[in-house]
Design a protein that fits this description.
- The complex is a heterotrimer.
- By secondary structure, chain A is α+β, with helices and mostly antiparallel strands.
- Chain A contains 2 helices and 10 strands.
- In chain A, helix 1 runs antiparallel to helix 2.
- The radius of gyration of chain A is 21 Å and the shape is globular.
- Helix content of chain B is 40%, strand content 12%.
- Chain B has 14 helices and 12 strands.
- A 5-stranded parallel β-sheet of chain B has the order 5-4-3-6-7. In chain B, strands 9-8-10-11-12 form a 5-stranded mixed β-sheet, sandwiched between helices. Chain B has a two-stranded antiparallel ribbon with strand order 1-2.
- In chain B, strand 6, helix 6 and strand 7 form a beta-alpha-beta unit.
- The radius of gyration of chain B is 24 Å and the shape is elongated.
- The chains are: A alpha+beta, B alpha/beta, C mainly alpha.
- At the B-C interface, helix 5 and helix 6 of B face helix 4 and helix 8 of C.
Chain lengths: 163, 387, 354
């Protein structure tokens, strides 16, 4: 019968995993993309979370043409089907492309946080438009993954540390 | 000759937002978009981002505790620390362990308190430094003490500079109350942790301010007379010693405070005749190597307490009669954690005035929030007795 | 008039001396070659030599990346090389100073330290470290004080000897008195000093080559190179003095002036070395003894040979000091003190049999 007031090595390990899982998503930055269809094209909004200085490279799908952006000109660079944005304190970046509606799923992008060295893939936010409802299954958000991990650990804990 | 600020296109010494933007775009272009522009390296770009975000795009000129100024144009990412107190101060402001490449041997000998630094290079100590190890980890900054062993620190700086002239040297103490806040702020600016430094200082000033507000209202002649004994029997602390200062900060009056020797061996009869109201015994080294973070047993504390009370004729001393003899571990009264110990002392000196002060909660918060350790004081560690 | 056997013996002895000295030089070179490769940085033997060459001929040598990353050239040229050379020069100087002292005092257990010079230097260093006062302020504080106090001690000895007569007994008594005086002052300073300063004093007194540098090596080399040839030139006088004052006087040696001159030279060499390294003992005691056992007491060969033995001993001790406990450098003065133990045991054993 385990004395619950002693932290055994196994418990410590589980606790550490828990701490890491909980801590990781909270500390890192991320970028989400929201696509709103417009007349003849798409409006893309990139939401920057916790990245004061960084860069994004978006790859436009086939058939899409660059229209413009409200991001400063000296912080944007277009080259073929790729667009680079320099983030210096901005929290949102919006740009417009001309193209078919179903191209919305084919947007891809990577981001870099130049202060922490982190990098990642631009996540897909829950689509705002009901027409996009049965699009590809959204990749799991950090919160979901965390909850799943917690649940698993809770089960493990209750089994191992049962009184 | 100072190195240029990275990515400073026009070389005017200031990295402006447009210059940074160009550098970012050039880099992304070269790496992801097949561009052929001359792009800065990723290291240069990340350094530029740091300088822009934390130092207003300009070179930082900073003065350390010893008065030396250094000018930096790049962040410090390979820090070597001979000062093991400084590492705790840096941890309090959230310095990532990755940015530390070498530590003093005392850090490696304490895996309970420094778990994340156990794989770092062993630099020896200030009196016996391992120059080859230090040089081979290629630090960009070496931290030494400002007021401890100044000649040894000077020798270390001279020798290392001869091996690698690119190293920056900083001298900070991290254990002296008088310069504590300044050092936290300096480190915050230096390491790009200004926000975290402010948070930590708020915590620190909350504790020290609470004590100081009450203590400042006590007239000097009404201060509680205290006998402070260090690790070895009858070795007290005299004028100018750190412990004497902490007794004063906590509102007490060290009965040997005018003794010119830093750690004088005192006559037991002098203690009896000066009749202190409180006796503080510091444990943790010398004749009393027990307690601290990896010791959970209070038995040794108990026996030392009894032996003090049983000293011949000491039952005449007010402190012993009133049961106001306390043991405290050096880990929370020396070093950068001193303010926790000072809170304990204040509470013991004036229990009525500090009824709401909870030093243990302060200690736990310090460990959880600022030292980022998974350590529960309820289950582990022995620091004070009786509490 | 030399007989044939005499001539043969003399030739044999000369040959032995030549062989001994050549052997020592070779050992010294080999040892230096090994010493340059020792250290806690992860440098292979080949890399160490490559680094030495790269420092000498920077454009000619192509360095592999791993050496640039680990700053091998900086480590070898900024830390190891001058230390190795310093050990050679310091060992050489201390041993010669010891031989001279033993000759002048006619006492085989004499060393510069017997005359209180080491204690004086420690006292000077303590004053500098604990009180912060000294003759040269700033980074030369400790060095200046140690040198000054050491020379003061030898001046005091000379003064006392002038008063009471320049005999070896007088000198040794005066030396021991000074030694106790300076030790007492050092102890008092240690009692009054703060804990970290006392630590610094203690470490200084261990004697170490950690603080060597190219400029310091230069200074010591200049002094040794200036003084040693004079000593060699006058070595015959030392032979005469070793026979006794009357004998020496009858041979035309200006006894008092010679003794003073030799004392000054030996003190100067010792002082200039230990003011940089702290007190490294036993080299001045052991090296002349070993040499004497092999090649006899003719100071014309004894001086340079014991110098070489001293260099080998100190360099060997330093190599051991750097490698005995991985990751730590034991102060070389502690290593040389350990050297003294087998030596004195040997003497003790020899005494019993004889």
């Amino acid at each position: 019968m385990l004395n619950s007031s002693i932290v055994t090595p196994k418990r410590a390990l589980l606790l550490c995993i828990l701490v890491v899982v909980l801590a990781a998503p909270a500390a890192a930055g991320s970028i989400e993309r929201t696509i709103t269809p417009q007349e003849g094209g798409l409006d893309i909004t990139l939401t920057v979370n916790d990245i004061p200085v960084g860069g994004i490279v978006e790859t436009l799908p086939e058939g899409c043409t660059w229209m413009g952006t409200d991001h400063p000109e000296d912080r944007t660079r277009v080259s073929g089907e790729k667009v680079a944005f320099a983030i210096i304190g901005e929290e949102t970046i919006t740009y417009q492309v001309q193209g078919p509606q179903d191209a919305a799923e084919a947007f891809a992008g990577t981001w870099e946080d130049l202060l922490t060295g982190d990098s990642g893939v631009v996540g897909l936010d829950e689509p705002g438009n009901p027409e996009q409802a049965d699009a590809t299954t959204p990749p799991s958000t950090p919160g979901f993954g965390c909850a799943a991990a917690l649940a698993a650990l809770a089960v493990l804990c209750s089994r191992r540390c049962g009184r | 000759m100072v190195a240029a600020v990275p990515c400073d296109g026009d070389g005017d010494g200031t990295l402006t937002a447009p210059e940074l933007a160009t550098a970012i775009l050039d880099s992304l272009d070269a790496r992801y978009m097949g561009g052929t522009v001359a792009a800065p390296s990723l290291t240069d770009l990340q350094d530029a981002a740091f300088v822009y975000e934390h130092w207003d795009g300009r070179a930082l000129t900073i003065t350390d505790t010893s008065g030396r100024t250094t000018t930096l144009t790049r962040p410090l990412n390979r820090i070597a620390l001979f000062n093991s107190d400084a590492i705790r101060m840096m941890r309090s402001i959230g310095l990532e362990p990755d940015r530390v490449v070498g530590v003093a041997k005392y850090v490696l000998e304490d895996p309970v308190f420094y778990p994340e630094y156990q794989e770092k290079a062993n630099l020896g100590s200030v009196w016996s430094p391992d120059y080859e190890q230090t040089a081979s980890v290629r630090p960009d900054a070496v931290f030494l003490y400002a007021s401890v062993s100044e000649t040894s620190c000077a020798d270390i700086e001279k020798t290392l500079r001869a091996i690698d002239p690119a190293i920056h040297f900083f001298r900070i103490d991290s254990f002296r109350p008088a310069v504590y806040a300044d050092e936290v702020r300096t480190l915050g600016l230096l390491l790009g942790k200004e926000e975290e430094a402010r948070e930590f200082l708020a915590f620190h000033e909350d504790v020290t301010g609470t004590v100081a507000d009450v203590v400042d209202t006590i007239p000097d002649e009404d201060r509680v007379p205290v006998y402070l004994e260090t690790w070895n029997a009858y070795k007290s602390a005299g004028m100018g010693s750190g412990y004497d200062e902490k007794v004063w900060l906590a509102g007490g009056r060290n009965i040997f405070g005018e003794n010119p020797v830093e750690y004088p061996v005192v006559d037991p009869e002098a203690v009896i005749s000066r009749n202190p109201a409180v006796i503080i015994k510091i444990v943790g080294a010398g004749e009393t190597t027990f307690g601290g973070y990896d010791d959970d047993d209070l038995a040794s504390f108990e026996s030392v307490l009894r032996s003090i009370e049983n000293r011949p004729v000491w039952d005449r001393i007010k402190a012993v009669r009133d049961g106001r003899v306390h043991l405290i571990h050096s880990k929370i009264i020396g070093g950068p954690d001193y303010f926790i110990g000072t809170a304990y002392l204040a509470k013991w000196f004036y229990p009525d005035l500090f009824a709401d002060l909870d030093p243990r909660a302060i200690h736990q918060r310090y460990l959880d929030e600022f030292q980022r350790l998974d350590y529960d004081l309820d289950d582990h560690g022995t620091f004070v007795y009786p509490a | 008039m030399m007989t044939d056997t005499g001539r043969q013996e003399y030739a044999h002895l000369t040959g032995k001396r030549a062989f001994f000295i050549t052997g020592l030089i070779l050992i010294l070179i080999a040892l230096a070659g090994v010493a340059v490769t020792l250290g806690s940085a992860d440098l292979s033997v080949a890399d160490s030599y490559r680094a030495v060459l790269a420092g000498l001929f920077p454009d000619a040598v192509d360095l592999p990346d791993r050496m640039i990353e680990s700053n091998a050239v900086g480590i070898v040229w900024g830390w190891r090389l001058h230390r190795v050379l310093f050990a050679v020069v310091a060992g050489f100087g201390l041993a010669i100073a010891g031989s001279v002292m033993q000759g002048v005092l006619r006492n085989p257990l004499a060393s510069p330290f017997t005359l209180g010079i080491a204690s004086a230097a420690s006292c000077g260093a303590s004053v500098a470290i604990i009180l912060g006062t000294g003759v040269i302020s700033g980074s030369l504080l400790i060095i200046g004080n140690a040198f000054l106090f050491a020379m003061l001690a030898s001046a005091a000895i000379y003064g006392m000897a002038r008063l009471r007569g320049m005999e070896s007994e007088t000198l040794i008594l005066a030396g021991i008195a000074l030694m106790y005086l300076f030790s007492a002052v050092t102890s008092l300073l240690q009692y009054l000093g703060t804990a970290d300063k006392v630590q610094e004093v203690v470490f200084w007194m261990f004697g170490s080559l950690d603080k060597s540098s190219w400029p310091k090596l230069g200074i010591v080399s200049v002094v040794v190179v200036a003084v040693v040839p004079i000593l060699l030139w006058r070595a015959w006088d030392l032979n005469a003095l070793a026979e006794g004052d009357e004998v020496a006087a009858s041979l035309g040696v200006p006894v008092e002036r010679s003794m003073a001159g030799f004392m000054l030279a030996a003190s100067l060499i010792t002082a200039v070395i230990i003011c940089f390294t702290g007190t490294i003992g036993f080299i001045g005691l052991v090296a002349p003894h070993i040499t004497r056992m092999v090649i006899g007491t003719d100071h014309r060969t004894l001086l340079p040979a014991s110098g070489l033995v001293g260099a080998v001993l100190l360099l060997g001790a330093d190599c051991l000091a750097r490698t005995a406990i991985p990751g730590t450098i034991i102060p070389v003065g502690i290593m040389t003190a350990f050297l003294g133990i087998p030596f004195f045991l040997y003497l003790f054993m020899k005494r019993r049999d004889g």
